[in-house]
Amino acid sequence: QVQLVESGGGSVQAGGSLRVSCAKFGYTTRFTCMGWFRQAPGKERDGVSQIDDYDRTKYADSVKGRFTISQDNAKNTLYLQMNNLKPEDTAVYYCAASYSLTCRVAYGRNNPGDFGYWGQGTQVTVSS
């Protein structure tokens, strides 16, 4: 059974940095895509960044130049390095995985519905 377990969230002041991690368990074949989504109170879950099995990446406009997605296949872990954090980055951050083909970066989608596996989420709070 696939499990995704996030860690590394926390509280930081604006301008600070955090790295969130997502450990993957129980999968037998490589996912087509891995991604980070976030959800702030009262808002929809939005895509932050994705990486596909061609190692192509994409980012939401709001985080370009500040966030970096990466994965260590030897450690079965996905990362999101977040620099120059802003109060508007405050949200619960979710790791997600997919075997779908349409989640690949080339399709230009940003649809949580493409992802069938989700972690429990980790809170990131940025104070001004």
Structural summary, described in words:
This protein has strands spanning 3-7, 10-13, 18-25, 33-39, 46-52, 57-59, 67-72, 77-82, 91-98, 117-118, 122-127. It is mainly beta and 128 residues long. A hairpin with a 4-residue loop joins strand 5 (46-52) and strand 6 (57-59). The chain is globular, with a radius of gyration of 14 Å.
What class do helices, strands and sheet pairing give?
mainly beta
Quote the beta fraction. over 45%
Q: Indicate the low-confidence ranges by residue numbers.
A: none
N-to-C CA distance: 40 Å
**Count of DSSP H/I helices:** 0
User: Could you tell me the radius of gyration in angstroms?
Assistant: 14 Å
Helical proportion, percent range: under 10%
> What sequence of helices (H) and strands (E) makes up the elements?
EEEEEEEEEEE
Anisotropy-based shape: globular
Major β-sheet profile = 7 strands, mixed
Give me some keywords for this one.
about 130 residues, mainly beta, seven-stranded mixed beta sheet, four-stranded antiparallel beta sheet, 11 strands
